[in-house]
Amino acid sequence: MKKIYDARDRLDAQMCADYLEDRGVRTHVQGGFLQGAVGEVPPDYRMSVHAIHDRDEALAQELLTEYLAPVPEDARAWRCPRCGETIDAQFDICWNCGATSG
Ligand SMILES: [Zn+2]
Hints:
Blueprint: E1 2-7, H1 10-22, E2 27-30, E3 47-51, H2 57-68, E4 78-79, E5 86-87
Antiparallel strand pairs: 1-3, 2-3, 4-5
The structure holds zinc ion.
The site of zinc ion has 8 residues, from loops.
């Protein structure tokens, strides 16, 4: 098992693990089970994402770079020209008024 990523928190670890799993890398999130078990989180407490199979390490590192890359300009949220709502990039139609981004 190879450590791929030191996560900021549980959500970050899970999102990273999901990202890798979706792309064929079997992952193990370490550290999360400690939460709630001892009542107090140690100061150096970290969650980390590991590739279960050592052979996946290179692929996992590559995917991690993608995972951490900033969202490209053209994939950012857009503002509805009709009603002014901010719409997430994955939607082409305003959820508020039905106008399209184009
Ligand atoms: Zn709208």
